[in-house]
């Protein structure tokens, strides 16, 4: 039994559905198999999701950061991921920003001996209420070595201060770009509208239910998952491991259920169909991009899996950098766990590419 204020106790047939539209939210409450009512709340854009715009703004602005000191160089190359929410709101007639995101940024540089260095800067929290001196920066180097330390030091001393300034500009930039879209007169309050209950016969066509289900399944909240692993093997060997059907059969312990070839548009199904996807981009021997999904994910939903192989000729080590964008929220841990167990560990064990973790 379910209780709703003003409606009393309801039986287990109660169903509540939300329908999000551009300027409104509809709440459909089904009280009985044959009737329901809908509450629709509409307004003049009190809140605007600016996540996509903010991600592009950050991408464009961080690329402006390039520094050099005593023959050592460093620059920010791209925004690998942005997880979190960015909104522009109007409250009591005032436009404000509310955002809280985690950022992972890729950088590159060179030592004075012309050794190439690359890695990531992770900022666990960039928020609307974070002061410029409160940001935390975690700096990592791909295939770390003592000779690369000068670039990391330059990142810390010169690049990080520039990033602090950029983050401080995000809030004002959001208001300047989106503030006008949500402003309204003080008395222009949102309107609630209750639609009278509608009655349908018991034998209503089942098509309505299936259509709603299909629409719902396409709305998947997603996030980005990243992972780095070291292998005692050249990049060419790792690239072949992900593209040669014989090698794929070896580390997955079974022939692919489907393999149309390592080519753009080539589909595959591995682990008995528990993993499926399609090759989207191949740059031998450094990069593979696939659409990729676990069978347990919502039907038809694929993430974008990007695999980069960074070879360090000095240490004979290749770092495999992996980024999934579009992983369903709640599936982050199982995705990384399966990748670590059935890909990374199995590849190292099968081909002897490193210490088994």
UniProtKB/TrEMBL annotation:
Positions with biased composition (Polar residues): 204-219
Gene3D superfamilies for the chain: 3.30.530.20, Activator of Hsp90 ATPase Aha1, N-terminal domain
GO biological process: protein folding
Renumbered residue ranges of the record's region Disordered: 200-219
Any Gene Ontology CC annotation: cytosol
Ranges for domain Activator of Hsp90 ATPase AHSA1-like N-terminal: 47-180
InterPro entries: Aha1, AHSA1-like_N, ASHA1/2-like_C, START-like_dom_sf
SUPFAM superfamilies: Activator of Hsp90 ATPase, Aha1, Bet v1-like
Domain of life: Eukaryota
A single MF term (Gene Ontology): protein-folding chaperone binding
Family statement drawn from the similarity comment of this UniProt entry: Belongs to the AHA1 family.
Protein name: Activator of Hsp90 ATPase AHSA1-like N-terminal domain-containing protein
Protein species of origin: Monilinia fructigena
Lineage: Eukaryota, Fungi, Dikarya, Ascomycota, Pezizomycotina
């Amino acid at each position: 039994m379910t209780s709703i204020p003003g409606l009393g106790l309801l039986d287990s047939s109660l169903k509540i559905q939300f329908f999000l539209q551009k300027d409104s939210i509809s709440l459909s409450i089904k009280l009985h198999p044959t009737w329901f009512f809908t509450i629709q709340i509409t307004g003049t854009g009190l809140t605007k999701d600016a996540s996509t715009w903010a991600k592009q703004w950050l991408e464009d602005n961080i690329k402006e950061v390039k520094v050099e000191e005593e023959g050592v160089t460093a620059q920010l190359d791209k925004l690998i991921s942005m997880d979190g929410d960015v909104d522009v709101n109007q409250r009591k007639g005032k436009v404000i920003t509310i955002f809280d995101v985690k950022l992972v940024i890729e950088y590159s540089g060179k030592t004075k001996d012309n050794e190439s260095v690359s890695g990531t800067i992770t900022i666990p929290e960039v928020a609307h209420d974070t002061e410029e001196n409160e940001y935390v920066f975690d700096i990592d180097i791909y295939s770390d070595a003592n000779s690369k330390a000068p670039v990391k030091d330059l990142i810390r001393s010169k690049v990080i201060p520039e990033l602090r300034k950029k983050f401080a500009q995000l809030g004002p930039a959001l208001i300047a770009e989106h503030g006008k879209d949500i402003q309204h007169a003080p008395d222009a309050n949102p309107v609630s509208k209750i639609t009278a209950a509608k009655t349908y016969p018991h034998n209503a066509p089942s098509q309505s239910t299936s259509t709603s289900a299909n629409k719902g399944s396409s709305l998947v909240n997603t996030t980005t998952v990243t992972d780095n692993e070291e292998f005692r093997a050249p990049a060419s060997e790792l690239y072949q491991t992900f593209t040669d059907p014989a090698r794929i059969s070896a580390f997955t312990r079974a022939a692919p259920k489907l393999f149309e070839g390592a080519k753009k548009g080539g589909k595959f199904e591995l682990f008995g169909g528990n993993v499926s996807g399609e090759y989207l981009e191949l740059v031998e021997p450094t990069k593979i991009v696939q659409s990729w999904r676990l069978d347990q994910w919502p039907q038809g939903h694929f993430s974008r899996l990007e695999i980069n192989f960074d070879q360090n000729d000095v240490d004979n080590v290749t770092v495999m950098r992996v980024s999934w964008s579009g992983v369903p929220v709640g599936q982050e841990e199982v995705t990384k766990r399966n990748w670590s167990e059935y890909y990374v560990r199995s590849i190292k064990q099968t081909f002897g590419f490193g210490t088994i973790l």
